[in-house]
Specification:
The chain has 182 residues and is α+β, with helices and mostly antiparallel strands. It has two domains: 74 residues, Ribosomal Protein S5, domain 2; 77 residues, Alpha-Beta Plaits. The chain contains five helices and six strands. It has a four-stranded antiparallel beta sheet, covered by helices on one side. It has a two-stranded parallel ribbon with strand order 1-2. A hairpin with a 2-residue loop joins β4 and β5. α1 crosses α2. It is elongated, with a radius of gyration of 24 Å. The two termini are 33 Å apart.
Amino acid sequence: MGSPTKFEFENMIIGQAIPSNFIPAIEKGFKEASNSGSLIGHPVENLRVVLTDGASHAVDSSELAFKLAAIYAFRQCYAAAKPVILEPVMKVELKVPTEFQGTVTGDINKRKGVIVGNDQDGDDTIVVAQVPLNNMFGYSTALRSMTQGKGEFTMEYLEHLAVSQDVQMQLINTYKANKGAE
């Protein structure tokens, strides 16, 4: 999925099914609707809208009418698209004394990380993993404890990926509970 935030709008209408002066209002409606997804209220990412057809009425058509129609269309399509919640995943590279390799890789697994590489560097082991950022808070302290202060790591952004189904349900339930409390 890579880095999110992309919004594309493409007008593929042939002819004058919708007068061209209403097209910006349609785009604006989709942009506004995507600012707050219904799952947890966060903006919808990686959205592509292709306008292929429509109709206008000489009396009833207005910018507001087309903007509201776009918002309604977005809500219908959003629900049908089976949206997912994304989270940042980090590339983590660890250098630890080989004697602590098992403990460190076990901890990475507990943090829902995936080991993607393992290499030797003298008495040290280099472990490369992909770990959700949310699971990396406090890792520096944990690594020092596991390796008697001898382990080190670097971390850099890799990509955004969908959270697991159980995490998604937990986030949705928390959002709904907080929204209901307002």
